[in-house]
Amino acid sequence: MQSNMRRSLAAFLCVWAGAALAAEAPAPEPDFWSRPNLLGDPFGLRASLAAKGIGLQVLETSEVLGTVSGGIRRGTVYEGVTQATLTVDLEKLAGWKGGSILVSALQIHGRGASANLVGAGLNTVSNFEATRATRLYDAYFEQKLFDGKFSVRIGQMRADDEFLLSQYGQNAGPDEPNGYSFASANPLFMNSTFGFPALLGNDLPSGGPAYPLAAPGVRLKLQPTGEISLLAAVFAGNPAGPGANDPQVRNGNGLFFSLRDSFFAIAEAQYALNQAPDGAGLPGTYRVGAWLHNGIFLDQRLGTDGLSLANPASNGAARRLRGFMGGYVGADQMIWKTGKTKDQGIGVFGRVMATQGDRAPVGFYINGGVTWKGPIPGRESDSLGLGVAHAALGNGARGLDQDAAAFAVGGLRPIRDGETVFELTYLFQATGWMTIQPDLQWIVRPGGGVPDPVSPTRAIGDALLIGLRTAITF
Fold first, then answer.
1. Hey, which residues does 324 pair with through a beta bridge?
2. What is the mean pLDDT of residues 20-47?
3. CB-based contacts of 75, cutoff 8 Å, min separation 6
4. pLDDT tens-digit profile of 413-431?
5. Which of 18, 135, 152, 309 is 20 to 30 Å from 128 by CA-CA measure?
6. The domain at 36-473 falls in which architecture?
7. What is the pLDDT of residues 53-110, one digit of tens each?
């Protein structure tokens, strides 16, 4: 009997020791094709830094775009951006509860399709088309309080990181509300308008605090419930400072921190329902927001003498108007859930914006579309998207063109009205660390109908473009 007891005890100890060793053994690293980073975790350095609260990510996005028809010329361009982002969890590193730091930098290379092939565009063909440069991007401190229900950010940052985003129309950030969005982190749609909209990109000084120009600012966020989020931020009014040349050249390295000019303020309320990963209902997010810029804006049609700026008798000095404000609403709603995660299935999205048309080149904007994550069995991480966006010129800009046509000999010149973009795209998750994305865009009335430089009596022709993008996370 004693021998049986000894054998039973020995068997129990072996089972217990095996279970303990299994519990303590580190999880095996994913294989080369499945892991999220191309370089994996060499010598355990990534895991060691993460344990101390330090994260480093490098993302390279490259693309080739070409015109099939329309625009100002047939051709092909290459463009790309490398983004390095450093994050520091101050609680893990130094015991500072709720504190964190984020710093990112960009290296932009290649040539843009809008400038070199289409010739004009209210909606930029690529969401990372920009002047070639190496620049500081974001650099801010964030403090979370009250179990994360309230947070404040201060430093250099962008409005398009948290405001005006779309769960299905952009898919640019991590799978969490208002998570940090990389400059080119696999957004489903390539056209920039599905991120920071064409209305603000064309109307704000230097394009506003959005890629590739961040600006000094302060952001507050309150989440009183799991469904409701309230955000407000104030940014420097001109991220590149005053000047008439290319703002991306004026602030070529991202180190211009002006706080003496005007300010740009924006606020947004969000209502998110059925966001639990295992929830039975269909997830959706609804947004309403408004903005105010207190700077000086020029009348798009009238001079200080009350005459149209197109009138030969005008003094040519546009009226100066104080302030620029507007509002927007947006919605994202899943209509068919096909997978185990909350984003697997078909979702629809839409956004509408309006502002003061006398001082804004773009006075009205609307976009929408449908996306399908996991459209092919066995390809759960792939995404298919169809989007459309329309940017309409303000009444002042349209009126100026009508006046110019009336005063021109014979009235032969195009009159701008608006630009429409159609985009069809497929995001193929080739490996855990690389995506491949074919893309098709049709730009109707580029620039709203600006004159063709070769034949100024007619507008630039509608442009059809095809492209291929790859994104690799190192």
1. 293
2. 74
3. 66, 67, 116, 117
4. 788 999 999 999 999 999 9
5. 152
6. Beta Barrel (2.40)
7. 999 999 999 999 999 999 999 999 999 999 999 999 999 999 999 999 999 999 999 9
Tokens matching residue 39: 């370089």
Give the per-residue pLDDT at 27: 54
Q: Which of 327, 357, 330, 346 lies closest to 418 in space, CA to CA?
A: 357
Which candidate, 233, 138, 198, places its Cα nearest to that of 361?
198
**Is the alpha carbon torsion for 416, 163, 327, 261 positive or negative?**
negative
Q: What are phi and psi of 25, to 5 degrees?
A: -65, 135
H/E stretch holding 250 reads helix 247-250
Q: Is the pTM of this model over 0.85?
A: yes
So what's the pLDDT on residue 243? 82
Q: Are 197 and 131 within 8 A, CB to CB?
A: no
pLDDT confidence band for 4 (50 / 70 / 90): very low
Q: Assess contact for 466 and 70: CB atoms under 8 A.
A: no
**373, 344 Cβ separation under 8 angstroms:** yes
Using CA atoms, how far residue 43 sits from 47, 49, 93, in Å, is: 9, 11, 21
Residue extents of the structural domains in the chain: 36-473
Instruction: Give the tokens for residue 173.
Output: 């950030």
Q: How far apart are CA 44 and CA 23, in angstroms?
A: 19
Question: CB-side exposure of 122: number of CA atoms within 13 Å?
Answer: 32
Tokens encoding 231: 């955000």
Largest CA distance in the chain: 117
Report the alpha-carbon distance of residue 443 to residue 375 in Å, rounded: 26
The SS3 assignment for 115 reads helix
Cα–Cα distance for residue pair 415/401, rounded to 1 Å: 5
**Helices (DSSP H) in 25-120: which residue ranges?**
45-51, 90-94, 113
Q: Which residues contact 357 (CB under 8 A, 6 or more apart)?
A: 300, 363, 364, 393, 394, 395, 396, 397
Q: How far apart are CA 349 and CA 276, in angstroms?
A: 19
